[in-house]
Amino acid sequence: MERESPTGPDWDRLYEFAASQEGLFTTRQGAEAGYSPQLLQHYVRIGRVRRIRRGIYRLVHFPAGEHEDLVAIWLWSEQAGTFSHQTALALYDLSDVLPSRIHLTLPDSWRHRRLRAPNVVVLHYADLLEAECRWAGAVRVTSPTRTLNDCAQAALSPDLLRQATQQAMHRGIVTGSLPLVEEALKPFGGLGT
Questions:
Q1: pLDDT digits over 31-66, tens only?
Q2: Superkingdom of the source (predicted)?
Q3: Within this chain, do residues 30 and 75 fall inside the same structural domain, yes or no?
Q4: Are residues 47 and 25 in the same domain?
């Protein structure tokens, strides 16, 4: 890899950031690697990096990632967001859900921020415990149990909720009872078998 002068931009450091984030990095991470906003704009002009959205860039020659769109949203959230609800179901491959929007849970302290969320994002707010989170590649996702409970509280279609719960239990990724799910499904014939 190219390495600029020891006091200037450090391509290896920038690459380290991007490599752990499916080829993406933020303006802040670029600055930590010695790249000014002006130098990043120069690299955009010469085709070395591509601007994904305000403050988020992609190394052009980095292989495309499976969840690159989610990584961009996660970086937009300053790495504080956790993918949840239907998005988490899709990441776990539970049910036939095909979310049209990306569900992201931010810390409750973010509730009063004046955020301009990307159009495809639905924001939720909760202070999640570490035990309620997992990693799916480069992004954080709610645990299967938390995901099912969130979907139950958000009134996900009973058929999809039942299917997701049955699949999670069959695969052994949730154990024990799920009172919120059971309560949500009670008017629709329960969990079934």
A1: 999 999 999 999 999 999 999 999 999 999 998 888
A2: Bacteria
A3: no
A4: yes
